[in-house]
Amino acid sequence: MTTRPNVVCIVDYGMCNVDSVSRAVEECGGSAIITADAGELAKADRIILPGVGSFTEAMSRIRQRSLDTILGELVTTRRLPFLGICLGMHLLATEGREGGTTEGLGWIDGEVRRLEPAGEDTRIPHAGWNEVDVVRESPLFHGMKPNQDFYFVHSYQLCPANPETVVARTPYGPGFVSAIQRDLIFGVQFHPEKSQRTGFQVLRNFLAI
User: Fold this and answer.
1) How far apart are alpha carbons 87 and 190 in whole angstroms?
2) Predicted model pTM
3) Which CATH architecture has domain 7-208?
């Protein structure tokens, strides 16, 4: 009997190179659909919310398309496995502090703040490869060696109010949260689709949840 590939809907609200995420999902054995359509999203087994750019602009686009309502039903009511990538992780927070205060999706209690440099050699934005220190067991990092390197590009960080949602941290500057989990809601600050072998293993683990 042939197992049907996981249908992974990648939410397209116009603020990410969704094609690279789609290719990575397909490479890892999933069936990727790029969409912002409620009917298509309802067919998903899993959902990925990528993103690069402004928290305020992203939430505006998501609300204009009523994606906050659709995603809330699928993720918090139907409990579909969900992965937020980079800005997509930030949008899970209660609020973002970029150019004023903007309400987020509110699935993770916390706020998004600008990264603070620890010295002159700490560059913002943080761009490039850096290690991820897993501090709590999570299926997202199942079977992986500790302190693996992943690819980052960001100027802001998610600061969760509840430390139990923190899965991993990265020692850049004073350090920041690089992975979170609440039930089947996951978020990563790094870009798994750009992180080669280690990033693809995270995606395979997500497909296996």
Assistant:
1) 10
2) 0.96
3) 3-Layer(aba) Sandwich (3.40)
Residue 142 designated active-site: no
Which residue ranges make up each domain of the chain?
7-208
The single residue of 9, 16, 86, 98 carrying the catalytic annotation is 86
pLDDT in tens, 3-22: 567 899 999 999 988 999 99
| 14-30 residues labelled b (16+ CB within 10 A) or e (exposed) | ebbebeebbebbeebeb
Q: Is 40 one of the catalytic residues?
A: no
Q: Is 128 exposed, middle or buried (0-12, 13-18, 19+ CB in 10 A)?
A: exposed
List, for residues 74-127, the tens digit of each pLDDT value: 999 999 999 999 999 999 999 999 878 999 999 999 999 999 887 777 899 999
Q: What's the half-sphere exposure (Cβ side, CA atoms, 13 Å) at 24?
A: 26
CA distance 29 to 201: 11
Name residue, tokens 């600050």: 189
Could you confirm whether 193 is annotated as catalytic?
Answer: yes
